[in-house]
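Notes from hallway chat w/ T.B., transcribed later so I don't forget. T.B. wanted the structure written out for a chain they're using in a teaching module, and asked if we could keep both sequence and C-alpha coordinates in one place. Agreed to drop them here.
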Amino acid sequence: MALELSTSAHGIPSIPVALDGRALEPSRRIPLNMDWVEEVRVNTSAVERRAATHCARRTVKKETQAAWLLRAIACMDLTTLSGDDSPERVRRLCAKARNPLQRHLVEGLGIQELNLTVAAVCVYHAYVETAVKALEGSGIPVAAVSAGFPAGLSPLAERVDEIRRSVEAGAAEIDIVITRAHVFRGEWQALYDEIAAFKETCGPIHMKAILGTGDLMTLRNVARASWVAMMAGADFIKTSTGKEAVNATLPVSLTMVRAIREYAKRTGMAVGFKPAGGIRTARQSLDWIALMKDELGRSWLEPSLFRFGASGMLGDIERQLEHHLTGRYSATYRHPIA
Protein backbone atom coordinates (compact mmCIF):
# COMPACT_ATOMS: atom_id res chain seq x y z
CA MET A 1 0.00 0.00 0.00
CA ALA A 2 1.33 3.42 -0.90
CA LEU A 3 2.03 5.92 1.82
CA GLU A 4 -0.51 8.70 2.09
CA LEU A 5 1.03 12.10 1.57
CA SER A 6 -0.50 14.80 3.77
CA THR A 7 -0.38 18.43 2.78
CA SER A 8 0.41 19.64 6.32
CA ALA A 9 4.15 19.57 5.80
CA HIS A 10 5.11 22.32 8.22
CA GLY A 11 4.79 22.61 11.97
CA ILE A 12 3.28 19.79 14.04
CA PRO A 13 0.03 18.73 12.38
CA SER A 14 -0.96 16.15 15.00
CA ILE A 15 0.23 14.40 18.13
CA PRO A 16 2.17 11.30 17.08
CA VAL A 17 1.25 7.89 18.42
CA ALA A 18 3.73 5.74 20.31
CA LEU A 19 4.43 2.14 19.47
CA ASP A 20 2.20 1.00 22.34
CA GLY A 21 -0.67 3.22 21.24
CA ARG A 22 -0.11 6.02 23.75
CA ALA A 23 -0.35 9.60 22.55
CA LEU A 24 3.00 11.37 22.87
CA GLU A 25 3.82 14.92 23.85
CA PRO A 26 6.32 17.21 22.06
CA SER A 27 9.86 17.14 23.37
CA ARG A 28 10.75 19.31 26.36
CA ARG A 29 13.71 19.51 28.71
CA ILE A 30 13.83 17.19 31.71
CA PRO A 31 16.54 16.81 34.37
CA LEU A 32 19.63 14.87 33.34
CA ASN A 33 19.27 11.26 34.49
CA MET A 34 22.77 9.82 34.72
CA ASP A 35 21.42 6.33 35.36
CA TRP A 36 19.87 6.36 31.90
CA VAL A 37 23.16 7.49 30.36
CA GLU A 38 25.36 5.01 32.21
CA GLU A 39 23.14 2.01 31.51
CA VAL A 40 23.32 2.50 27.72
CA ARG A 41 24.79 -0.53 25.98
CA VAL A 42 25.03 -1.14 22.25
CA ASN A 43 25.75 -4.52 20.67
CA THR A 44 27.71 -3.17 17.72
CA SER A 45 27.92 -6.42 15.78
CA ALA A 46 24.16 -6.99 16.13
CA VAL A 47 23.40 -3.43 14.98
CA GLU A 48 25.69 -3.82 11.99
CA ARG A 49 24.09 -7.15 11.05
CA ARG A 50 20.62 -5.66 11.29
CA ALA A 51 21.65 -2.68 9.18
CA ALA A 52 23.28 -4.93 6.58
CA THR A 53 20.09 -6.93 6.10
CA HIS A 54 17.76 -3.93 6.29
CA CYS A 55 17.91 -3.01 2.62
CA ALA A 56 16.89 -6.53 1.57
CA ARG A 57 13.96 -6.80 3.98
CA ARG A 58 11.58 -4.44 2.20
CA THR A 59 11.14 -3.78 -1.52
CA VAL A 60 8.81 -1.14 -2.89
CA LYS A 61 8.00 -0.82 -6.56
CA LYS A 62 5.89 1.13 -9.04
CA GLU A 63 3.14 3.28 -7.48
CA THR A 64 4.25 2.50 -3.94
CA GLN A 65 7.82 3.51 -4.71
CA ALA A 66 6.61 6.76 -6.28
CA ALA A 67 4.56 7.52 -3.15
CA TRP A 68 7.57 6.87 -0.91
CA LEU A 69 9.70 9.18 -3.05
CA LEU A 70 7.09 11.93 -2.70
CA ARG A 71 7.23 11.38 1.04
CA ALA A 72 11.01 11.80 0.94
CA ILE A 73 10.58 15.18 -0.78
CA ALA A 74 8.03 16.31 1.82
CA CYS A 75 10.53 15.41 4.58
CA MET A 76 13.57 17.02 2.95
CA ASP A 77 15.57 19.93 4.32
CA LEU A 78 16.86 21.26 1.00
CA THR A 79 20.35 22.40 1.92
CA THR A 80 23.24 24.51 0.70
CA LEU A 81 26.22 24.79 3.03
CA SER A 82 29.13 25.44 0.69
CA GLY A 83 31.99 27.86 0.98
CA ASP A 84 30.95 29.41 -2.34
CA ASP A 85 27.31 30.02 -1.38
CA SER A 86 25.86 33.29 -2.63
CA PRO A 87 22.54 35.12 -2.35
CA GLU A 88 21.67 34.12 -5.90
CA ARG A 89 22.34 30.43 -5.20
CA VAL A 90 20.14 30.60 -2.09
CA ARG A 91 17.33 32.26 -4.07
CA ARG A 92 17.52 29.54 -6.73
CA LEU A 93 17.43 26.88 -4.01
CA CYS A 94 14.34 28.51 -2.51
CA ALA A 95 12.65 28.52 -5.91
CA LYS A 96 13.32 24.80 -6.15
CA ALA A 97 11.97 24.31 -2.61
CA ARG A 98 8.68 25.89 -3.66
CA ASN A 99 8.43 23.66 -6.75
CA PRO A 100 10.58 20.58 -6.11
CA LEU A 101 9.20 18.69 -9.11
CA GLN A 102 9.00 19.94 -12.67
CA ARG A 103 5.47 20.71 -13.85
CA HIS A 104 5.21 17.80 -16.28
CA LEU A 105 6.02 15.38 -13.45
CA VAL A 106 3.42 16.93 -11.15
CA GLU A 107 0.79 16.71 -13.88
CA GLY A 108 1.82 13.22 -14.94
CA LEU A 109 1.59 11.94 -11.36
CA GLY A 110 -1.72 13.74 -10.82
CA ILE A 111 -0.58 15.40 -7.58
CA GLN A 112 -1.42 19.03 -8.32
CA GLU A 113 -3.71 19.26 -5.30
CA LEU A 114 -0.91 18.27 -2.90
CA ASN A 115 0.96 21.54 -3.47
CA LEU A 116 4.09 19.56 -2.70
CA THR A 117 7.08 21.42 -1.25
CA VAL A 118 10.14 20.41 0.72
CA ALA A 119 9.99 20.57 4.54
CA ALA A 120 12.53 23.39 4.98
CA VAL A 121 15.47 25.19 3.42
CA CYS A 122 18.71 24.95 5.41
CA VAL A 123 21.39 27.66 5.05
CA TYR A 124 24.20 29.40 6.89
CA HIS A 125 23.27 32.25 9.23
CA ALA A 126 24.52 34.79 6.68
CA TYR A 127 21.75 33.78 4.24
CA VAL A 128 18.80 33.47 6.61
CA GLU A 129 17.30 36.82 5.63
CA THR A 130 17.78 36.07 1.93
CA ALA A 131 16.01 32.72 2.27
CA VAL A 132 13.19 34.11 4.42
CA LYS A 133 12.45 36.77 1.81
CA ALA A 134 12.63 34.28 -1.07
CA LEU A 135 10.22 31.88 0.69
CA GLU A 136 7.74 34.52 1.81
CA GLY A 137 4.17 33.27 1.52
CA SER A 138 5.17 29.65 0.88
CA GLY A 139 4.92 28.39 4.45
CA ILE A 140 8.34 26.77 4.05
CA PRO A 141 10.50 27.43 7.14
CA VAL A 142 14.15 28.43 7.03
CA ALA A 143 16.55 26.36 9.10
CA ALA A 144 19.87 27.94 10.08
CA VAL A 145 22.98 26.01 11.04
CA SER A 146 24.31 27.74 14.14
CA ALA A 147 26.41 27.31 17.27
CA GLY A 148 29.78 27.30 15.52
CA PHE A 149 28.84 24.99 12.65
CA PRO A 150 30.47 22.67 11.67
CA ALA A 151 33.17 22.17 14.35
CA GLY A 152 31.29 23.63 17.31
CA LEU A 153 34.52 24.91 18.87
CA SER A 154 33.87 28.63 19.21
CA PRO A 155 33.24 30.03 22.72
CA LEU A 156 29.84 29.18 24.16
CA ALA A 157 28.75 32.82 24.43
CA GLU A 158 29.47 33.36 20.72
CA ARG A 159 27.55 30.24 19.77
CA VAL A 160 24.54 31.29 21.82
CA ASP A 161 24.66 34.75 20.27
CA GLU A 162 24.76 33.27 16.77
CA ILE A 163 21.58 31.32 17.54
CA ARG A 164 19.91 34.46 18.84
CA ARG A 165 20.84 36.40 15.72
CA SER A 166 19.55 33.63 13.44
CA VAL A 167 16.22 33.61 15.27
CA GLU A 168 15.99 37.40 15.03
CA ALA A 169 16.75 37.17 11.28
CA GLY A 170 13.72 34.94 10.80
CA ALA A 171 14.98 31.37 11.11
CA ALA A 172 12.12 29.08 12.14
CA GLU A 173 14.42 26.15 12.94
CA ILE A 174 17.95 25.96 14.29
CA ASP A 175 20.46 23.14 13.71
CA ILE A 176 23.06 23.33 16.48
CA VAL A 177 26.38 21.47 16.82
CA ILE A 178 27.48 19.83 20.04
CA THR A 179 31.00 19.89 21.47
CA ARG A 180 32.21 16.38 20.63
CA ALA A 181 34.95 16.57 23.27
CA HIS A 182 32.26 16.40 25.98
CA VAL A 183 31.33 12.97 24.65
CA PHE A 184 34.92 11.73 24.44
CA ARG A 185 35.56 12.76 28.04
CA GLY A 186 32.24 11.53 29.39
CA GLU A 187 31.33 15.08 30.43
CA TRP A 188 27.59 14.45 30.24
CA GLN A 189 26.55 17.29 32.53
CA ALA A 190 28.57 19.75 30.43
CA LEU A 191 26.99 18.40 27.25
CA TYR A 192 23.51 18.63 28.78
CA ASP A 193 24.08 22.21 29.98
CA GLU A 194 25.37 23.27 26.56
CA ILE A 195 22.40 21.84 24.64
CA ALA A 196 19.94 23.19 27.23
CA ALA A 197 21.43 26.68 26.81
CA PHE A 198 21.04 26.42 23.04
CA LYS A 199 17.43 25.26 23.37
CA GLU A 200 16.60 28.08 25.78
CA THR A 201 17.94 30.56 23.25
CA CYS A 202 15.89 28.97 20.48
CA GLY A 203 12.73 29.43 22.51
CA PRO A 204 9.64 27.81 20.93
CA ILE A 205 11.19 27.10 17.52
CA HIS A 206 12.46 23.64 16.64
CA MET A 207 16.07 22.84 17.50
CA LYS A 208 17.95 19.96 15.90
CA ALA A 209 21.03 18.75 17.78
CA ILE A 210 23.80 17.64 15.40
CA LEU A 211 25.88 14.95 17.13
CA GLY A 212 28.64 14.69 14.51
CA THR A 213 28.39 10.90 14.69
CA GLY A 214 31.29 10.33 12.34
CA ASP A 215 33.55 11.83 15.00
CA LEU A 216 32.12 9.97 18.01
CA MET A 217 34.06 6.74 17.40
CA THR A 218 31.61 4.20 18.94
CA LEU A 219 27.90 3.47 18.69
CA ARG A 220 27.69 3.61 22.48
CA ASN A 221 28.94 7.19 22.37
CA VAL A 222 26.31 7.92 19.72
CA ALA A 223 23.56 6.41 21.86
CA ARG A 224 24.64 8.21 25.04
CA ALA A 225 24.93 11.55 23.27
CA SER A 226 21.45 10.97 21.84
CA TRP A 227 19.97 10.40 25.30
CA VAL A 228 21.63 13.50 26.74
CA ALA A 229 20.48 15.67 23.83
CA MET A 230 16.91 14.47 24.19
CA MET A 231 16.85 15.08 27.94
CA ALA A 232 18.24 18.58 27.32
CA GLY A 233 15.21 19.39 25.19
CA ALA A 234 16.30 18.81 21.58
CA ASP A 235 13.31 18.52 19.26
CA PHE A 236 15.38 16.47 16.80
CA ILE A 237 18.62 14.56 16.97
CA LYS A 238 20.64 14.72 13.76
CA THR A 239 23.51 12.53 12.64
CA SER A 240 26.01 14.83 10.97
CA THR A 241 27.06 18.20 9.68
CA GLY A 242 27.86 16.72 6.29
CA LYS A 243 31.46 17.85 6.76
CA GLU A 244 32.79 14.80 8.62
CA ALA A 245 34.70 12.04 6.84
CA VAL A 246 31.82 9.68 7.67
CA ASN A 247 28.28 11.04 7.81
CA ALA A 248 24.88 9.34 8.03
CA THR A 249 25.06 5.54 8.00
CA LEU A 250 22.38 2.95 8.64
CA PRO A 251 24.08 1.49 11.79
CA VAL A 252 24.35 4.96 13.34
CA SER A 253 20.79 5.79 12.32
CA LEU A 254 19.46 2.53 13.76
CA THR A 255 21.22 3.29 17.05
CA MET A 256 19.73 6.79 17.25
CA VAL A 257 16.24 5.70 16.18
CA ARG A 258 16.15 2.99 18.84
CA ALA A 259 17.25 5.55 21.43
CA ILE A 260 14.30 7.71 20.32
CA ARG A 261 11.95 4.74 20.65
CA GLU A 262 13.12 3.87 24.16
CA TYR A 263 13.04 7.52 25.20
CA ALA A 264 9.42 7.78 24.02
CA LYS A 265 8.49 4.74 26.08
CA ARG A 266 10.11 6.14 29.22
CA THR A 267 9.04 9.77 28.96
CA GLY A 268 5.96 9.87 26.75
CA MET A 269 7.69 12.41 24.48
CA ALA A 270 8.39 12.27 20.76
CA VAL A 271 11.79 13.38 19.43
CA GLY A 272 12.45 13.70 15.71
CA PHE A 273 15.31 12.26 13.67
CA LYS A 274 17.34 13.78 10.84
CA PRO A 275 19.97 11.81 8.91
CA ALA A 276 22.27 14.17 7.00
CA GLY A 277 25.39 13.93 4.90
CA GLY A 278 26.12 11.39 2.19
CA ILE A 279 22.47 10.63 1.34
CA ARG A 280 22.41 11.34 -2.38
CA THR A 281 20.18 8.84 -4.16
CA ALA A 282 16.51 8.01 -4.30
CA ARG A 283 17.34 4.43 -3.33
CA GLN A 284 18.95 5.65 -0.12
CA SER A 285 15.89 7.71 0.77
CA LEU A 286 13.77 4.55 0.57
CA ASP A 287 16.17 2.75 2.93
CA TRP A 288 15.80 5.46 5.58
CA ILE A 289 12.02 5.72 5.20
CA ALA A 290 11.75 1.95 5.64
CA LEU A 291 13.96 2.16 8.74
CA MET A 292 11.71 4.80 10.31
CA LYS A 293 8.54 2.88 9.46
CA ASP A 294 9.92 -0.42 10.81
CA GLU A 295 11.42 0.96 14.02
CA LEU A 296 9.09 3.84 14.97
CA GLY A 297 5.94 3.46 12.90
CA ARG A 298 3.92 5.62 10.55
CA SER A 299 3.77 8.57 12.99
CA TRP A 300 7.47 9.29 12.44
CA LEU A 301 7.06 9.74 8.69
CA GLU A 302 5.80 13.31 9.01
CA PRO A 303 8.10 16.32 8.56
CA SER A 304 7.40 17.24 12.18
CA LEU A 305 9.42 14.16 13.25
CA PHE A 306 11.58 13.14 10.28
CA ARG A 307 13.84 15.09 7.95
CA PHE A 308 16.50 14.36 5.39
CA GLY A 309 19.43 16.75 5.21
CA ALA A 310 20.05 16.66 1.49
CA SER A 311 20.29 18.57 -1.75
CA GLY A 312 21.56 16.41 -4.60
CA MET A 313 19.13 13.63 -3.66
CA LEU A 314 16.21 15.66 -4.99
CA GLY A 315 17.57 15.55 -8.54
CA ASP A 316 17.84 11.76 -8.42
CA ILE A 317 14.30 11.46 -7.05
CA GLU A 318 13.07 13.54 -10.00
CA ARG A 319 14.88 11.19 -12.38
CA GLN A 320 13.29 8.14 -10.75
CA LEU A 321 9.83 9.66 -10.92
CA GLU A 322 10.34 10.50 -14.59
CA HIS A 323 11.34 6.88 -15.17
CA HIS A 324 8.17 5.80 -13.36
CA LEU A 325 6.10 7.87 -15.82
CA THR A 326 7.96 7.29 -19.07
CA GLY A 327 10.08 4.18 -18.63
CA ARG A 328 13.18 6.23 -19.49
CA TYR A 329 15.86 7.90 -17.37
CA SER A 330 16.54 11.53 -18.16
CA ALA A 331 19.96 13.17 -18.07
CA THR A 332 21.06 14.53 -14.71
CA TYR A 333 21.52 18.05 -16.11
CA ARG A 334 17.78 18.23 -16.76
CA HIS A 335 17.14 18.30 -13.02
CA PRO A 336 19.14 21.22 -11.61
CA ILE A 337 18.82 22.06 -7.91
CA ALA A 338 20.32 25.55 -7.57
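Follow-up for T.B.: The chain has a mean pLDDT of 90. Might be a good example for the class.
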